[in-house]
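User: Here's a structure from my thesis project, written as structure tokens. My advisor, Dr. K., wants to see whether a designed sequence matches the one we expressed. Can you design one independently, without my sequence as a hint?
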């Protein structure tokens, strides 16, 4: 089964609840295409922390090791670039180092870093998608997910 890692900012976001919901919905969309979704805050139990319901469940070192292993075991990665994040940048580089197919996306009104854009443009197995709203994003992802579900 194809495994998709869902990457996006969590620590510094404009709206953590909207981000968590988006990442969870992306995971469900992947599963509709018989792609196993690895949504870090769900799989590794930090969702309640980001929702302000408990203390941090894992140390930074454990977060790094667990999430790095998850990326290494994945086949594809979906990356939300709506909020700047050094962690997302590191996950992108790890995805490239492990030869994953990358679908990066951002709202059309958000300018992404030139460095990240350049990284993605130089990597032949990546696509960058600018979307208008969540419905349009999900519609645009469907052909890419269909392609990867048939591998």
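Assistant: Designed independently from the structure alone:
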């Amino acid at each position: 089964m194809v495994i998709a890692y869902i990457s996006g900012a969590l620590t510094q976001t404009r709206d953590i609840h909207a981000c968590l919901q988006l990442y969870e919905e992306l995971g469900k969309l992947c599963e509709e295409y018989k792609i196993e979704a690895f949504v870090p805050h769900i799989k590794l139990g930090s969702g309640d922390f980001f929702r302000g319901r408990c203390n941090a469940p894992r140390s930074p070192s454990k977060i790094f090791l667990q999430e790095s292993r998850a990326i290494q075991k994945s086949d594809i990665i979906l990356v939300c670039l709506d909020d700047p994040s050094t962690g997302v940048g590191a996950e992108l580089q790890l995805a490239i180092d492990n030869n994953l197919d990358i679908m990066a996306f951002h709202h059309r009104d958000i300018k992404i870093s030139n460095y990240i854009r350049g990284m993605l443009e130089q990597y032949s197995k990546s696509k960058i998608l600018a979307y208008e709203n969540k419905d349009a994003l999900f519609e645009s992802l469907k052909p890419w997910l269909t392609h990867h579900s048939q591998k």
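When you compare it with your expressed construct, this may help: The chain has one domain: 3-149.
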